[in-house]
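ok trying again, last paste got cut off:
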Amino acid sequence: MAEVAFENVRKVYTNGHVAVAAADFTVADGELLVLVGPSGCGKSTLLRLIAGLEEVTAGSIRIGGRDVTQLDARDRDIAMVFQSYALYPHMTVAENLGFGLKLRGHPGDEIARRVQEAAAKLELTGFMDRLPRQLSGGQRQRVALGRALVRQPQVFLLDEPLSNLDAKLRATMRTEIARLHRSLGTTMIYVTHDQVEAMTLGQRIVVLNEGVVQQIDAPMRIYERPANLFVAGFLGNPAMNLLRGRLESDRGLHLVSSESRLPIVADQHHALLRDYEGQEIIAGVRPEDLRRRPVAADAGAAVLQCSVELVETVGNEAFIHARSGDWTLIARTSPRDLPSSGSTVALSVAPEKIHFFDAATGLRIEPQAAAQSSPGTGNFAHSARTSS
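nice, full thing came through this time. structure:
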């Protein structure tokens, strides 16, 4: 086991494209860290830099305290699982599992022992004589994991290993990977574009966009305190409602657009936003934080009168697509007693559930004291006013 440290790592391709810009963070020994972001954000490039499949343009990478920046891939003591299973079709499960060790000249009895141990962990013992074509997709992916597992590396690298599986198998394999990590305690770095995988698997997640680290923290801390507009809009399904407007003081503080008006009712928000009066900001509200109640029951809450445009029911919950002036919103609610399309509803949000962002910088607006990262979290949220 070993920690992995990125020290101002930068990757620029010959055409000038910056794939990774100054990545500077550490993956703790034994941690399962997830790199997440949209296609082209640099997450797979970071993984390939660790593996030695790409050359670092600037900065350094350390594994277990050893600088591996210039080492060949075979000398880094890592094992990688790719999106494609890449199994040898003419080899049995047992042969696939042990082939890498055979190439490295390990004794036959050691190969057999490691293969049996890996097969037992991944529940493959009953399939050892089968060829890949005789396996299900989930079983093939377990063989791919087992092939990495027998190596007993310091670090496991997993590059979107579940993307080729259907939704049910992905959920099953997420559980398998989490269980495997708990039993091994080995450092794992997992790449995905799927925010559900990131939120459910990662002890910490790194959110990337256009090669830049946006935020690093525990999944729920990022969800509850996104550092900027990109993180706020990326994590969450449906995404956070983002309401753009000008902050005005007219018989109380309001966020005002050309057709809409959101009252800012909390005293703490008045103090937080006092320097933004007369300027454009963005208020963010998670769909689950919009409540459908009679206005009289919402004392102390910010209330918007909305026209219902669409109602989606998906079994145990429903989504109300609504419009308040020029703002569009989605509310997550119970599937019972739903409004009809074209009706008017009052959607309210508790003051403490509203997030505020600087429209110019995209950064979260928060008090100066709260803007400082607590030691070791790697949270990149900063006060928008002081960072602009």
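cool. Residues 167-184 form the longest helix (18 residues). The radius of gyration is 25 Å.
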